[in-house]
């Protein structure tokens, strides 16, 4: 695999690891708040009424925004820097959570939570993730995995605490507590984000190639289709696993703990599997994560007891975390770093579509059949399709970006 020149002293400098720490905190706050949404489903339904599909739309709208807005924040961050987007995103996230706590209807919750949480993460996530990639080369997947492990730790910590807070204080104060925490921790750590010097992270052609040229390549199209297929099922467990578990006899607190277990597995996957991907090849590892996520859906569809659901949650979390960790590094390997925020942002619109469609479709299937069986089987098939596309991409693509006359200078 070939990558742009970047000296190891620069790549592993303390400044780079500070950016990793800031990214960890930002993903912890942002996605910890987002993935605690399942704790709010029952109280929102009790307060405002509505089916599981309509309640799921709140999360899906937010998810669509936090992946879809990267197509805007990413290219802008390539020009203006990641730090200002990180600060603005965390401030918007905090405001959205607090406004959701004041909502008088489900529509107002959807707007406040969707625009605040979705828009806030959408502004911050892609720019910060790309900033991490620019500080590293040989240990890129490891650094990326540590940065995005904040998502897993946030899910592990925030989701059960939010569920406990809802039980003790109610859903409105819980939204306020999350909002204040986002303002203090999220904005504070966003101040530490710094972009690496651009001339140290990209060769001449990487800087000169246009974003349009990059996203019109066959490699980008195949990456996009694979992410779209995977994204249709990726976030269904975060919305529907809790009600599924309650339907199968688990208590509300026990069901919420499954989301925490996904977070625990995801944290382990991001910390441990990023380094594995660096050693065995990030492209091959990406295919493996799609296959493993498909197998985990097989565990879910056959699970009818708490033990089976616990096994699913841990297994799914590990390889979901590995996928999130390695994907940005694969993009950096293929397209360089000069336009990286823009490329990642446009790629993540595929996940945005999947996040918008998948949980709502699963809710509709449940409302129609009173079962999640068809939805889970569809997730399994979608991940196998993603694995096939990614494997074909590895076979078709030459090492490095498939841009005309792209030069490469260092083997990693």
Structure commentary:
- It is a single chain.
- The chain has 412 residues and is mainly α.
- It has a single domain, classed as MFS general substrate transporter like domains (Growth Hormone, Chain: A, Up-down Bundle), CATH 1.20.1250.20.
- The protein has 18 helices and 2 strands.
- The protein has helices spanning 8-11, 14-34, 38-48, 52-68, 70-80, 82-100, 106-134, 140-169, 171-190, 204-208, 211-215, 218-234, 236-247, 252-280, 282-301, 306-335, 340-369, 373-396, and strands at 2-3, 410-411.
- It has a two-stranded antiparallel ribbon.
- The longest helix is centred in the middle third of the chain and has 30 residues, at 140-169.
- The protein is globular.
- The chain starts with a strand and ends with a strand.
- The model is unreliable at 1-12 and 398-412 (pLDDT under 50).
In short, what is this structure?
This protein has helices at 8-11, 14-34, 38-48, 52-68, 70-80, 82-100, 106-134, 140-169, 171-190, 204-208, 211-215, 218-234, 236-247, 252-280, 282-301, 306-335, 340-369, 373-396; strands at 2-3, 410-411. With 412 residues, the chain is an all-alpha fold. Helix 12 (218-234) packs antiparallel against helix 18 (373-396).
